[in-house]
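dumping the sequnces here before i forget
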Amino acid sequence: MRVLAARPLTREAFAPYGEVIAKAGAEHFDINDGMATRYHDLAPVEAAKEQGRPLINIFEGRPWALPLTIRMLERHNLGSQAFFPLRDCRWLVVVAPAGDFDPAGIEAFVADGAQGVNYRPGTWHHPLVALDGTTDFLVVDRGGPAVDCDEAHLAEDELVRVEA
Amino acid sequence: MRVLAARPLTREAFAPYGEVIAKAGAEHFDINDGMATRYHDLAPVEAAKEQGRPLINIFEGRPWALPLTIRMLERHNLGSQAFFPLRDCRWLVVVAPAGDFDPAGIEAFVADGAQGVNYRPGTWHHPLVALDGTTDFLVVDRGGPAVDCDEAHLAEDELVRVEA
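..and the predicted 3d for all of it:
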């Protein structure tokens, strides 16, 4: 089984898959007479295709154990999907490039509690993986009449073990 | 000066102004083979008018002292604006009904760290008020070519003092 060491999440490494939502390194400016700082436009929400509309949700994610064997990734072609942890908790981001699914392209990142991600439409990604206990995430994604979830299941000889 | 006691934030009391974003009392179902629970569609994002698009931002809010004298509310006519605290912190929500601004209509609510709000387009609201120290909030609002912020300033004899 291929063993994959999860790397720290950075904007540069995640750029092929979407955006890292974080204050560090982001454009910002003061508002409200200096009582707040706006870290502006950290991620676009894509939700309009095929009568879609953006939704705000909370996902309560139960913790996964490491090492984690990756057996399935999913993608949403019609909309982006953003996750941000609501407490200071590490979590795991496992992705593969959009297009035809290739298990050899799987990458894994460890996010910290000050980092969210926004998956671009079509990015293959693992379901939510909290690491340090049950954690709520704010999730911004697409609602609409069409079902928009493809799953890619890995064969036994394609499985990937992620260590962090 | 009128003195206003801030009430605990509830869905029912906030309904004229928008949505409370919280797990308590919300529709939910398990996903990801039981590893997560989705509290679904807690608030709509309205951002499409006049070439608008939804944005995800982080606001770093500095704390205000109580009692707070309300001198100004603002509104966004073209889009909703959602706030969710990224740590367990109380914060203050001060609103007035949409339409012609009426200082007599101002209401105040204390939100806890498990509650966000989504201001409906046109709802008058005070700028972000963190109470328990500097706190980051995830903010989902509208970007677009038009400036979309009206301010209503209270005259000296209209000022409201909020206590919590």
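Chain B touches chain A through 47 residues (CB under 8 Å).
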